């Protein structure tokens, strides 16, 4: 039971962080928000709520979440690793038993891999980086880690973030107070939180009976 509780609590925390950044990014990029809601209108319609079985059809929404976790991974560093033997890495000597940390923002915004790496461009995951998977198989995007020590709650986290974001964007028009740009400053810590709380105005966008 304690392992299950740890999994749920950890997954809930990182999922909340990802959803906060995703909303902040689409508020500052209204065209992406418009595309996501158009996809929801086409695939779901305004007479129904989003179901888990619908998620596979929401490819642009999935691209938004991938791009969110590329720019703002929930944890800036992966769990520590240790070198098992002396080795040379990119010209640097790494002695055995050295504690190693993977800096995700640096890795996932490498200009040698990503064009305009600091810009929010979900379309890259539908075109140039369509092949990139988020489940640890492509090392240019590993917000959940990779291999045997990757996050065990990845499936839970992806399901929660996709369904929650889809439901929010489908049910509501969202806007920032006074339509001002959202502050994207990060708070330094073990998790990658926004420095300031996210404030959002929600306005229903579906027919009244759908909310009943």
Topology of this protein?
Elements: H1 2-28, H2 30-43, H3 59-71, E1 81-82, E2 87-89, E3 92-94, E4 99-100, H4 104-108, H5 154-171, E5 172-175, E6 186-187, E7 193-194, E8 201-204
Antiparallel strand pairs: 1-4, 2-3, 5-8, 6-7
Cofactor: heme
GO molecular function: heme binding; iron ion binding; monooxygenase activity; oxidoreductase activity, acting on paired donors, with incorporation or reduction of molecular oxygen
Main location: membrane
Structure, explained:
The protein has 212 residues and is of the alpha+beta class. It is built from five helices and eight strands, in the order αααββββααββββ. A hairpin with a 5-residue loop joins strand 6 and strand 7. Helix 1 crosses helix 3. The model has no long low-confidence stretch (mean pLDDT 91).
Properties at a glance:
alpha+beta; 5 helices; Plant_Cytochrome_P450_Monoox; oxidoreductase; monooxygenase activity; 212 residues; two-stranded antiparallel sheet; two-stranded antiparallel ribbon; monooxygenase; metal-binding; Cytochrome p450; 10% strand
């Amino acid at each position: 039971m304690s392992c299950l509780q740890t999994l749920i609590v950890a997954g809930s925390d990182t999922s909340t962080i990802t959803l906060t950044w995703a909303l902040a990014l689409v508020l500052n990029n209204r065209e992406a928000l418009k595309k996501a809601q158009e996809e929801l209108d086409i695939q779901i319609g305004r007479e129904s709520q989003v179901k888990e079985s619908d998620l596979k059809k929401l490819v642009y929404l999935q691209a938004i979440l991938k791009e969110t976790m590329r720019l703002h991974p929930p944890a800036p560093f992966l769990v520590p690793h240790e070198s098992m033997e002396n080795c040379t890495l990119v010209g640097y000597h790494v002695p055995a038993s050295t504690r190693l940390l993977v800096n995700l923002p640096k890795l996932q915004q490498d200009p040698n891999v990503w064009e305009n790496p600091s810009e929010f461009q979900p379309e890259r995951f539908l075109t140039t980086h369509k092949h990139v998977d988020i489940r640890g198989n492509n090392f240019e995007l590993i917000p959940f880690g990779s291999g045997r020590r990757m996050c065990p709650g990845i499936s839970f986290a992806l399901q929660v973030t996709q369904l929650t974001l889809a439901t929010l964007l489908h049910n509501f028009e969202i806007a920032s107070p006074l339509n001002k740009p959202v502050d994207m400053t990060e708070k330094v810590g073990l998790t990658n939180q926004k420095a300031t709380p996210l404030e959002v105005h929600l306005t229903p966008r579906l027919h009244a009976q759908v909310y009943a």
